[in-house]
Amino acid sequence: MTIGRTRASAVRAAVMLTGVAVLAAGCFADSTGREHEDDDPVGGSDTEISAEAEDVLERYGIALPDSASTPQLELLPENAGREEGYRLSFTMGQEEAEQLCTGINGPGPAASLTESDAEVLGVEEPPEGARLCFGSRPDHGQQQIRVLYAGDPAEVTLALYLMPTR
């Protein structure tokens, strides 16, 4: 009898997991079967978002000053040219944003953006007076970093993504 009950429990668990997976897939697909590009932040509560953002920043070797607002984290849309990607939005002092860029590759004017920069930063046109910096980590060339900021305090958009190995 125990084998029958164990098998029945296993079948119930498998059916439940399959149902949850189908339900989850249905929530993220439209009638064409494509996944939606969801602009909702990763995670749920502010604490979860903050912890996930801190994890991403740490993996990319970026430390934000204490004065920076809590970053809002989004996943970048899937792209064959990158393995993972994140976009973080937050505010910080303009001088701190300049220091962040100095540590990457130095800020420059952002009069216009390449198609790739616009995609990862989530903007079509940079705000007036915006500054842009980009680069990769010296010890991890696959990790790409893009920073766009404007204003004082600076509204910062930080894109972090991993290029595939060649």
Spatial order of the strands forming the largest sheet: 1-2-6-5-4-3
> In what range is the share of β-strand residues?
25-35%
* Class derived from helix and strand content: alpha+beta
Number of strands: 6
pLDDT averaged over residues: 76
Task: Return Rg in Å.
Answer: 20 Å
Task: Write the element-wise H/E pattern from the N-terminal end onward.
Answer: HHEEHEHEEE
Q: Which fold name fills CATH's third level, the topology of the largest domain? A: Protein Transport Mog1p, Chain A
How many angstroms does the end-to-end distance come to? 56 Å
Description:
This protein is α+β, with helices and mostly antiparallel strands and 166 residues long. It has 2 domains: 1-36; 46-162, Protein Transport Mog1p, Chain A, CATH 3.40.1000. Helices cover 34% and strands 25% of the residues. It is built from 4 helices and 6 strands. The protein has a 6-stranded antiparallel β-sheet, with helices on both faces. The longest helix is centred in the N-terminal third of the chain and has 26 residues, at 2-27. It is globular and about 40 Å long. Keywords: Signal. This is Lipoprotein.
